[in-house]
Amino acid sequence: MSTIWKPSVTVAAIIARDDRFLMIEEETEDGVRINQPAGHLDPDETLQQAVIRETLEETAHDFTPTELIGTYLSRYVSPKTGEQVTYLRFAFSGELGQLHQRALDHGILRTVWMSHAELLASQERHRSPLVMQCVNDYLAGQRAPLSLLYTHPSALDISITKSNSEHN
After folding, report:
1. What 3-state DSSP class applies to 126?
2. H runs (alpha helix) in the chain
3. How much is the pLDDT for 168?
4. Looking at the whole model, is its pTM more than 0.85?
5. What residue ranges of the chain have pLDDT lower than 70?
6. What is the Cα 32 distance to its own chain's centre?
7. 85 φ, ψ to 5°?
């Protein structure tokens, strides 16, 4: 029986206001890093639900995705462990909503608004090279409608998924 390779699916929110981008600073095993509000797709959620959830958890703000900036494939190799992980990232732009009084996700140190120049000057601290690529694609006007993304209902219902896996 062969092993099927699977990338880690992640989402990111590209949020711009007054020529600045909402970023987070987070503690990682490689030190403090800069990233967009981003994280993993969880079971039983759509890509849009994931980016809404991750933005709330990491910034305490509501977020409404309106467009897909792009999809990105990259490999990360931890300098400390040598572990390799391939990521498939879906980046969204949208509207920043209400700020809630809640703690930020574990490991998130703070949110910060950064200009393009500040992001360029801090690339050695970026969580991934995709941080800058997503910002550059956003600034270049790269946009796709959310209608390109489809989630079949079976992906949102664990009982259906379990039933299907028993028959495969």
Report:
1. strand
2. 47-59, 116-121, 130-139, 158-167
3. 45
4. yes
5. 1, 158-168
6. 17
7. -135, 135
